[in-house]
Amino acid sequence: MKESYDPITTEIIQSSLQAAADEMFAAMRRTAMSAIIYEVLDMGTAICTKDGELASSGAGIPAFVGMLDKAVKRINEKFDKPGDIKEGDIFTTNDPFNGGVTHLNDVIVLMPIFAEGEIVCWSANIAHWNDIGGMIPGSMSIDATEIFQEGLQLPGIKLFSRGEPIQSVFDILEANSRMPDFLKGDLWAGIASIRAGERRVLEIVNKYGKGAFLHALEEYMNYGERVTLSALKNLPHEKFTLSEEQDSGQVYTVTIEITETEFIVDLLDNPDQDKGPFNISRDSAVTSSQLILKSLTSTDTICNGGTFRPLTVKTREGSVFHPHRPAAMGIYYEVDVRLYDLIWRALAEKMPERLPAGGFASICGTLFGGIHPDTGRQYSIIEPELGGWGGSCRADGNPAIFSGFHGETYNCPAEINEARNGLLVDRMSLNEEEGGEGKYRGGKGVCIEYRIRSDNAWFTAAYTRSKFPPWPLKGGRHGSPNYVEILRTDGSRERHSVVNALTLNTDDVIRVMTGNGAGYGNPEERDIELIKDDLKNGYITEEQANKYYKLHKRVKVEH
């Protein structure tokens, strides 16, 4: 006879799991060594089922959370013999071909949680590490042609055995980083995080019983699936196809088919894998697809493994979205956000009432470092940048926030950057360039200027949406492009979207310009009071108001 469980208890267990994932997130944030983790929140935490399905997650980067379940599944596949996984074991991976999903800088730490001698679930986290070795500082080279050049690979290995650290693994990790103290600090923060998850999960199991706990997980998965299936019934049931040229000249193509029971993303017709680092793993392609599915079906409710059961993603091995080893992956994030934006655009052009116009849609990863002029120590940082979102059928786009792919993360405050790194932040303002005008305008991007304080510093960047700006809807105007200017002390300027290990010297300035989101609707239909507010707040000039919104003519007609 099947045991029955109180639905109220099941609900309490589910909510407690969410609280556990949130506590894991807080533990990592408060103990990490690097500002990219404790300020930017370039990380993610999760509790997964014993089989590797997402059960609950903390805040941070949605695309990171969507990678943790896949890492658990790879560990289960690799350590599949009885006794391979023991209580107290901790594993790590960063290898995109072995459950690392992204690139080598993003390191996953995960552990099985045992109750009564059985694995009941896993706690896991992921965070960006400043330097994992490789051919250049920061470990992300535009010139890399194979993953071996990008740093140390951790192909799903044990970090702890039965609760004891494997010192040789720690030694190898530290020996392969230019910043071993930061690496060690961030690693132990990850360990503290997953242990916090273990502690809370065991409290739940001990309070309600293992059977009730496992039942709650199963019910939660089933509920997630029901929410998605219910939402799919209210979407248009048809095929959506879009091909879009990229800044590189390649053409990416997606076909999405929506039925009452399935959301199918077809990526078969796409270029062969890139010879450089502009590739993503198949798991990354799945994650990008999951993000769009979630946006369409349940933006403010449950998100777990069951949520994504109706999703099917088709890829071709050897393509840019499913490369063969040893493809380089260092700049995976720009390919990932391009795919995310491609799926978004394919749907938005047919469902403009559900999705906004195009945003800046780039991570705009800005990497630089050198020797700190005050301490003599090496510093190496990566700054994902804020940008503008597109206007929608209801409102203007959001200004100066990260892309939807990047999620609930924040910019590093100027004060932290100046204190921890060898630079000054001369300027942080909204982007004053034209672009994104519409009945509802796109949100503003940003202009940030970093001044270097020592000679022989280095700078690397890879921005997309530089050649092709954000796309509008319903007669709005395109947004503005993402790019970087280097202002040299001799007065010269250089403009880049992709650059590798460029040498900078004292008082050279990195000027970041991120795009304004695209507009929605005819600019001449914009409400006059909104235009006046834009003028008052400095979002547009009077010249722009007259040029795009015909303000002078409309005011005359009013009078």
Question: Can you walk through the features of this model?
Answer:
The chain has 559 residues and is of the alpha+beta class. Among the domains are: 7-226, no CATH class; 356-526, no CATH class. It has 12 helices and 20 strands. The chain has a 7-stranded antiparallel sheet, sandwiched between helices. A 5-stranded antiparallel sheet has the order 14-15-20-17-18, with helices on one face. Strands 8-9-10-11 form a 4-stranded mixed sheet, covered by helices on one side. The longest helix has 29 residues, at 180-208. It is globular and about 80 Å long. The N and C termini lie far apart (81 Å). The model has no long low-confidence stretch (mean pLDDT 95).
**What structural class do you assign from the helix and strand content?**
alpha+beta
Q: Could you name the ranges where pLDDT drops below 50 across 5 or more consecutive residues?
A: none
Beta-strand content bin: 15-25%
What characteristic shape results from the CA principal axes? Answer: globular
User: In whole angstroms, how far apart are the ends?
Assistant: 81 Å
Q: Please estimate the helix content.
A: 25-40%
Oligomer: single chain
Radius of gyration: 24 Å
Largest sheet: 7 strands, antiparallel
The helix count comes to: 12
What is the tally of beta strands? 20
Main sheet: strand order: 2-1-5-4-3-6-7
What is the overall pLDDT average? 95
